[in-house]
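Record format v2
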Amino acid sequence: MSNKSKNFFKGIKDTSPLMIPVIPFGIIFGVLAIDLGLTPLMTIAMSIIIFGGASQIIFLQLFSAGASSLVILSSVGAVNSRHLLYGTVLSEHLSDLNLTRKIIVSYLLVDQAFAVSNDHFKKNREDKDKYFHLIGGGLNCWTIWQITTIIGIYLGSIIPEKLGLTFAIPLTFLALLVNDFRKLINVIVIIVSGSIATFGYQVIPFKAYVIVAAAISLLIAFILTKFIKKNNE
Amino acid sequence: MSNLALIIYCGLITFLTRFSMIALLKKEMFNDRIREVLSYVPSAIFPAIIFPAIFLDNAGSIEIENNPKILAAIIAMAVGIFTRNIIATIFSGLASYWFIIFIV
């Protein structure tokens, strides 16, 4: 087996345990999209074009609340700003790739693939083909995401509405924060953001409550981290 | 803007946030401070989706009494903190929600 395919399959293997939570996530997305009135074709188009769970679900949430395109776009952008961090961390390993490869790798750079490939890159700095690890892991996520979206689309047309499955949206995001509930600054940021969004929902124009709440609470994180750093010095 | 155009623009934004740093950075441009603040992005954004979906009714008014979502979310959060397991968190929340609305 060539070095490239070795890296590729290692990427698939390393991301596989992380696919377990992706399966219900993808199904929930498909079910909700149909529930909220998107066509099956639009739902599949979203999973292929956007290919990001949090972005797609926030899209649905705001879309069904009647938010404007600009608000949906900026909220998706805000949710995605964490990818800037991933790119920053990985750039030292990927800066030698040509443009086409950078484009392919970027499209596949999802949370799960980042998590395992970042480790792999650090351990195999000298390997020129190590980026195939990220391609393998990313494609694994991509395949699972498309299949579970389609399963969700199918289930969405048979699951009764009174089950209240839209409640799965806040639960899914809550689940993504489980590690943050143990840290004080995170808890403060969480409470500030949630309160602004809840009380501002009716008051803040254009359904921009997600952006406003995120911007203010990130500013608070900025101030708190500075304050706590100073105390440590 | 048509729905498909909106999806394409959202896809472009998602792609650009993944691509920009890989394409532009040669060496570390972000200092540790910016990196640390960026690590709070999930804590800053996700609650803005979670809280209104739990505390507001369909009309957008705050609903505290007779709201099964609050108790179900608290149970899910407790399960999440103890197990650190994404699936367990989602399904304990859904199960307790269904238990409250269909059985209690």
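Chain A touches chain B through 90 residues (CB under 8 Å).
Chain A has a mean pLDDT of 88.
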